[in-house]
Amino acid sequence: MSKHPHLANPSIGLGCMNLSHAYGSPVQQDDAIKALQEAFEMGYRHFDTATLYGGGANEQLVGQALKDHRQSFFLASKCGMAMVDGKKQINGRPDTIRQQCENSLKRLQTEYIDLYYLHRLDPEVAIEESVGALGDLVKEGKIGAIGLSEVSATTLRKAHQECPITAIQSEYSLWTRNPEIAVLKACQELDVTFVAFSPLARGFLTGGLMNANDLETKDIRNNMPRFQTEHYESNLALLNDYFSLAKDIGCTPAQLALAWFKGKHNNIVPIPGTRSVHHMQENLDAAQLNLDTSQIRLLDEMINQNNVHGPRYNAAQQKEIDTEEF
């Protein structure tokens, strides 16, 4: 981990997307800026955003909230997926990547981004071409390191031969185990940090969403099979033993989900997102929790790809990613 220590310390980062994108109505700008500033004050030092989130609004929030502390935190953003004329568009062409980076730098009010991910593999563009463009941005000092998001081990290896890859970001939690098929092993072999997004299973593992009908109409989870009524009720049944274990250990369900990562590998950094400052603190405090091997094994058996009901994405969402499937 010495190659990129900022990713490891502190061991939990903050996913900023929730403030502007995908989970219902955006948080009011002043409240969002205040929440990000409070996150910094409580100790978060790894903030993750993207060109896509809120059509650039999320990067603006992060830039506005944290510009006075720029030397004191690790900043990650993403390119290659953006809102174009109101629609999401995947585009990994070098000229697009360069332009999006310039726009990100302006919105984030910074001269460099520590880690810049290709948000999705563009099936029309060779990964070597996209990564080559990111490599040029590293040489120019505009970005510190290259990341990839939701890619397979095969794509990671191809990309790594073109330019060194510092991090892969993909969904990973007790109920989404896809990285365990091949990507985690590839990351360890190549000394690539694995950054886990949605480590709390999009709220499922927190116990804060016991009825999927409570979701706002615009919430992305409404389009995800696991949150559909026919699947969600079966998934909720998995939480009974899980909640009991959290109670026995003396932590919250969210903290249990985050502590699980430490028992898996030493190169995983979860980046839970939340709109609540209280939950930000709760999640950060999970870094102090250490589970023993029997507790990790118990969790692995309790919730996994064999007993979770429903696929993680619908057919349209599935087409956008390159990750291995069970």
From TrEMBL:
The UniProt record lists the EC number as: 1.1.1.65
Gene3D superfamilies associated with the record: NADP-dependent oxidoreductase domain (3.20.20.100)
Question: What region holds the NADP-dependent oxidoreductase domain?
Answer: 12-303
- This chain's protein is named Pyridoxine 4-dehydrogenase
The yes or no answer to whether the keyword Oxidoreductase is present is yes
A molecular function (GO) held by this record is:
pyridoxine 4-dehydrogenase (NADP+) activity
Q: Could you tell me which SUPFAM superfamilies the record lists for this protein?
A: NAD(P)-linked oxidoreductase
Q: Which UniProt keywords apply?
A: Oxidoreductase
May I have one GO cellular component term?
A: cytoplasm
**Which InterPro entries does the annotation name?**
AKR, Aldo-Keto_reductase, NAD(P)_OxRdtase_dom_sf, NADP_OxRdtase_dom
Q: Does the keyword NADP apply?
A: no
Q: Which organism is it from?
A: Marinomonas posidonica (strain CECT 7376 / NCIMB 14433 / IVIA-Po-181)
Root EC class:
oxidoreductase
